[in-house]
Amino acid sequence: MTASHEISRTHWARIGESTFTLGIWFLYGIHRVFGRWPFRLCLYPVVLAHWLLRPGVRQASMQYLQRLQAATGTLGREPSRRDSLRHVALFSETLLDKLLAVTGRYPFAKVRTQGREELYEYLSHGRGAMIITAHMGCMEMCRAMGEARGAKINILVHTRHAERFNRLLENLSPGHGVRLLEVAQTDPAFASKLAERIEAGELVAVAGDRVPVTASQTVEAQFLGHTAQFPVGPYVLAALLHCPLYLLTSIHEDDTYRIQMERIADAVVLPRANRAQALGELAQRYADALTQRLIRSPYDWFNFFPFWNRHHDRAPR
After folding, report:
1. In the prediction, which pLDDT does 175 show?
2. CA 208, CA 213: separation in Å to the nearest integer?
3. Secondary structure of the chain in the HEC alphabet?
4. pTM to 2 decimals?
5. I need a surface site. Which of 37, 39, 102, 247 has the fewest CB within 10 A?
6. Percent of the chain topping pLDDT 90
């Protein structure tokens, strides 16, 4: 088995983090003292080294960009290695904006928003909602702006870094309204805990573009011209919690971000007779919405692993 084939079969949850906390803090300090351009001068050599030394990142980036171009023509040409490097560089620079957002140092007045007032109006009645997100743009921007309006946000994660990142958030922004909850298993006790948060008028957010380790918890949808696996968790939880489901995304626009919020469903209903069909329709609606965002900002999708499962890697009929 070749190394590239081995990489393609590695689940994203088993791919180790290569982020160095001290390095992040060093670059953050450079920005605070000298500004954005000196920060970039220090960042780009790190990005280049990371891009050169991580073939799996390069392969996943190129696969995504090639499929985006083939399906939408957004780039206007066949993507090159320079496009892949630009893709990784944008992600790295977004890390700074994440820290700036968490610490309240980002100029939020520049951020463009669309559809969030509807959610705030709904929350004003004391009832919570389910939010499905994606690994695009700077989601910390959304969290920080939500906190400013008094929203309590519970973010479900599929890794064991939740407690460590909770401590980091507390150090950066004491009293923040964000909780990271590790999803080890969605048993009745966990669902009951989430139901209590919804009843208290809080938000429960989970990404819809990362497949959990348990492969049976997925549904197929067409994404960028190929069949991909999407987790069913967000839709099943919304059905169990009897609450609306919103899509929340963040993309770069000009020199800032655009945050878009839209209601996917007033209530998620999964009939026993055609449960799989209902899940597939919801996943397809989600995948289509992501495609529309990525047409506007093609370098903003930050899943640097082979997203399309090789066993389902085929173009639609």
Report:
1. 52
2. 14
3. CCHHHHHHCCCHHHCCCCCCHHHHHHHHHHHHHHCHHHHHHHHHHHHHHHHHHCHHHHHHHHHHHHHHHHHHCCCCCCCCHHHHHHHHHHHHHHHHHHHHHHCCCCCHHHCEEECHHHHHHHHCCCCCEEEEECCECCHHHHHHHHHHCCCCEEEEECCCCHHHHHHHHHHHCCCCCEEEEECCCCCHHHHHHHHHHHHCCCEEEEECCCCCCCCCCEEEEEECCEEEEEECHHHHHHHHHCCCEEEEEEEEECCEEEEEEEEEECCCCCCCCCHHHHHHHHHHHHHHHHHHHHHHCCCCECCCCCCCCHHHCCCCC
4. 0.83
5. 37
6. 41
Residue type at position 307: F
pLDDT at residue 210, as a whole number: 82
Contact, 79 vs 58, CB < 8 A? no
Say if CB 293 and CB 300 are below 8 A apart: yes
Weakly modelled stretches of the chain, pLDDT under 50: 1-8, 11-20, 162, 214-215, 311-317
- At residue 4, the pLDDT reads 41
**What's the CA gap between 245 and 232, in Å, rounded?**
13
pLDDT value at position 71?
97
> What's residue 157's pLDDT?
75
pLDDT at 308: 87
The whole-number pLDDT of residue 116 equals: 84
The answer for residues whose C-beta is within 8 angstroms of residue 306's C-beta and 6 or more apart is 7, 8, 10, 56, 59, 60, 63
What would the two tokens of residue 96 be? Answer: 């700074």
Give how far Cα 131 sits from Cα of 55, 86, 91, 215, Å.
33, 29, 22, 22
Q: What pLDDT sits at residue 5?
A: 43
